[in-house]
Amino acid sequence: MIGRPSGLEGDDRWARAAWTYVAEARSPTLHRLIEADGAVEALRMLRAGSVRRRALELHPQARPVDLEGWEARIGELDLDGIARACDQGSLTLLVPGDVGWPTGLDRLDDPPPCVFVRGDPDLEALVERSVALVGSRAATEYGLRTAGDLADGLVTRGFTVVSGAAYGIDAAAHRAALAADGRCVAVLACGADRYYPGPHRGLIDAVARSGAVVSESPPGAAPYRWRFLARNRIIAALSSATVVVEAGLRSGSLSTAREAREHHLPVGAVPGPVSSATSAGCHALVRDTDAVLVTDAAEVAELAASMGEHLAPARDRGPSRPEDHLDEVSYRVWAAVPTRGSASTERLGVSSGVRAEALAGILAALEVDGLVVRDSGRWRKGRVGRK
Amino acid sequence: MIGRPSGLEGDDRWARAAWTYVAEARSPTLHRLIEADGAVEALRMLRAGSVRRRALELHPQARPVDLEGWEARIGELDLDGIARACDQGSLTLLVPGDVGWPTGLDRLDDPPPCVFVRGDPDLEALVERSVALVGSRAATEYGLRTAGDLADGLVTRGFTVVSGAAYGIDAAAHRAALAADGRCVAVLACGADRYYPGPHRGLIDAVARSGAVVSESPPGAAPYRWRFLARNRIIAALSSATVVVEAGLRSGSLSTAREAREHHLPVGAVPGPVSSATSAGCHALVRDTDAVLVTDAAEVAELAASMGEHLAPARDRGPSRPEDHLDEVSYRVWAAVPTRGSASTERLGVSSGVRAEALAGILAALEVDGLVVRDSGRWRKGRVGRK
After folding, report:
1. How confident is the model at residue A307 (pLDDT cuts 50, 70, 90)?
2. pLDDT in tens, A33-53
3. What is the DSSP secondary structure assignment for residue A339, as one 8-state letter?
4. Between A145, A146, A329, which is nearest B357 by CB?
5. Which residues contact A249 (CB under 8 A, 6 or more apart)?
6. How far apart are the C-alpha atoms of B382 and B384, rounded to whole Å?
7. Quick check: do B103-308 and B317-381 share a fold?
8. Could you tell me what percent of chain B has a pLDDT over 90?
9. Between chains, do A293 and B283 touch, taking CB under 8 Å as contact?
């Protein structure tokens, strides 16, 4: 037996909270372990020294260094302290199955076992219509102004603005959203009871009052470098669309766009002067990926509306359904085809956001694969891909 | 018999020149008439008062007002004067079949019967690798700088810069190309012996020395408003690619992009600040059409190289070949498939400039139509679309 277990470890919710301390964020191994055996039993196995064998059985690609990390940290776990900190910081623990649990996280391969929320605990409702506005910390005046204009226009249209409370684009987006009396979600790379960056204390408190401050790390967690990359997948997965307002070619915000893309969520990019290094990442997104060039809030709203409703969470889909093997664009088209009834090609173009020129070819290919069926000039889902 | 015919009217070349005076630019009726009966006979019929019947026979959609215009102008034709002006202005008359005739013009439905060239009479060689850089007259400092940077980079890469010698983007592109010792083609909406706008006299002369000044209107022709729109199709048809550097939503340069698109030529658009009205047209091109976002000369060169060589001139193709009915993107993919031998999907993506996500669907649709055939994992043209 490693360490001294708290009585809370027998409770699934608190066992999940314990795992946020024990394991680093973004562990597909931990996800499989909890899915298979539950957080309580996983923790028991860890204390009993038998988790390593079980983890490798469930996830042969598990990295030994991660499993050693778990064993190193379990001895220092203070779950009662975490529970006290949640209480003191007014943090709500959300776990899968809770009403407020944001089901968008279920599309991740490595979702957090739980999230800590300061503010409105119904995170699911809060992000039902939401756009992530992200970008460089070293933003230009142009980027800051544009982020603000977009945020203002989006909250006016009833969208929640999701971002990371960082310097630059994040703060400009949050501030304009708050100024327009809108709702914000800030996903932090530190504990939801902490303030990072320090000078944004007032901003982060205001975000919590308007909507929610969210973290997958336990209270008190420090904003370590690797947690920012992990955090970006949460921002993308929570939002109906992700828009990169201004980003250099190596900006971390491009990883948020990549996460969105990988999970079949629409990505927008704001153009800027070709001579501006902080727009080069946005231009690369438009040139090299399916990202849509967006220039105002109306275009972002259209992008966000274009598909969010059609996408089932990843966990609802088996690993080997035919549509899993579609490329991103074809998937969008397939997802837009209604499960009941049928839709016109034109309608599918609008829903999927795929241009007419490409649409016909994609539908023809889907038809060949049996994923869609032509029905008196309209389209319905084929038996092969039907849920 | 209307008017007094010059002895030159019996010569095909000069009869074509006469038609540039008699008919307004951009006449599909005239094109059919000359193709069917020749310029000399068409002129004879016009003088004999019998052209109207013949024109309507060949082109039932011909507008009576145009045919009346021919009859009104033939009485004032001074072909000897045109020939003298060509001589005085050192203008070369180029007609289809001449070595220097730019075969790109053959893709038009309404090509000019001839063009007048001041400078290098081998226009075909001059535009073999060429990019049209076009945009607003009321350009911003950003647009002017960007046009110059692109032109410099393009001539350095061996491209000829084609534009319209207008204020704003056109002039900035020409000037930077000339400053970098590159070659330029200016297509004017007035006679090639005239200067429009007036203050660009030195620029237009320099363009002629570097490459060529071109017009489809006869010497002395005034820059009437409608000739600018007609002129834009010549700019597009001469160039391997057309790039809109800066354009408002109603900029005439968007018509150049539309002409390029309609003739299956690649279009690029330079992004700019979303708050700049003179970039709104460029952004609309990227959002609403197949235009590619380009940020530097290397990207433009890639765009120009992406397909020019694959495209046969329009007149080589019959009016009812199956590939004529393809949308623009599918056509690009089809055109990239080699006539002899085969190519990999990856290779076709590079040649056609179509992204991998869309490519598979398009190829599948082309295969269904018999236009391409899958051959051991590679693609060759099918019998249906083979030339």
Report:
1. low
2. 999 999 999 999 999 999 999
3. S
4. A329
5. A277, A280, A281, A284
6. 5
7. no
8. 74
9. yes
The strand ranges marked E within A11-57 are: none
Contact criterion met (CB below 8 Å) for A77 and A18: yes
A274 in contact with B at a CB cutoff of 8 Å? Answer: yes
In the predicted structure, residue B378 carries a pLDDT above the cut 90: no
Quick: pLDDT tens for B22-67: 998 999 999 999 999 999 999 999 999 999 999 999 999 998 888 9
- Can you read off the two tokens belonging to residue A383? 């038996």
Does the beta carbon of A290 lie under 8 angstroms from any beta carbon of chain B? yes
Q: How do the residues of chain B divide into helix, strand and coil, expressed in percent and rounded to 5?
A: 50, 10, 35
Q: Which residue type does B266 have?
A: P
User: How long is chain B?
Assistant: 387
Neighboring chain A residues of B149 at a CB cutoff of 8 Å? 275
Least confident of A10-24, A94-108, A361-375, B264-278: A361-375
B103-308 is classed in which CATH architecture? 3-Layer(aba) Sandwich (3.40)
Nearest-Cα distance to chain A for B278, in Å, is: 12
Contact A117, A238 (CB under 8 A): no
* The dihedral sign for the CA sequence B62, B68, B74, B76: negative
Q: Where are the domains positioned within chain A?
A: 7-79, 103-308, 317-381
Give residue-wise pLDDT tens across range A63-83. 888 898 999 899 999 999 999
Residue A380, phi then psi, degrees to nearest 5: -130, 165
pLDDT, averaged across chain B: 90
Q: In this structure, are residues A186 and A204 in contact, taking their beta carbons and an 8 Å threshold?
A: yes
At A329 the pLDDT is 72
User: Could you confirm whether domain A317-381 is CATH 3.40.50.720?
Assistant: no
Distance from CA of A199 to the nearest CA of B (A): 29
Does residue B1 or residue A273 have the better pLDDT? A273
Structure ipTM over 0.90, yes or no:
no
Sequence-distant (≥ 6) Cβ neighbours of residue A46 within 8 angstroms: A2, A22, A70, A71, A74
Query: What are residue A340's phi and psi, to 5 degrees?
Result: -110, 140
C-beta separation of A276 from A245 below 8 A: no
Global pTM? 0.76
The answer to whether the beta carbons of residues B74 and B47 sit under 8 Å apart is yes
Q: How confident is the model at residue B324 (pLDDT cuts 50, 70, 90)?
A: low
Quick check: B134 and B124 in contact, CB under 8 A?
Answer: no
State how far the Cα of B345 lies from the Cα of B328, in Å rounded to an integer.
18
